[in-house]
Write the structure tokens for this entry.
Amino acid sequence: MAAPRRRRRTVEDPMTEVACIGRSIAVRRIELGITQQALADLAGTSRSTVQALEHGAGTVKLSLFVDIAEVLGLRVTARAATDHEAS
């Protein structure tokens, strides 16, 4: 039986953006010398949630993402989708 086809991710793919956000969170956390557990404690969540966010896996509520960003001193801004990205 053939293996299922995997879809190639594009720059516009939201999952690519989630992975970039997760990477940014991990980099900032490491810059500050904070462990995943310490970040989780400060943000009121679990270490596994922080780990999943940093790896771009799973789902995280927007409010929790904002809490984590605030702990790290990051600013969250909204970006409107262009016609190209929305399709």
Remarks:
- Residues 45 and 64 are 8 Å apart (CA to CA).
- Residues 14-32 form the longest helix (19 residues).
- The chain has five helices and no strands.
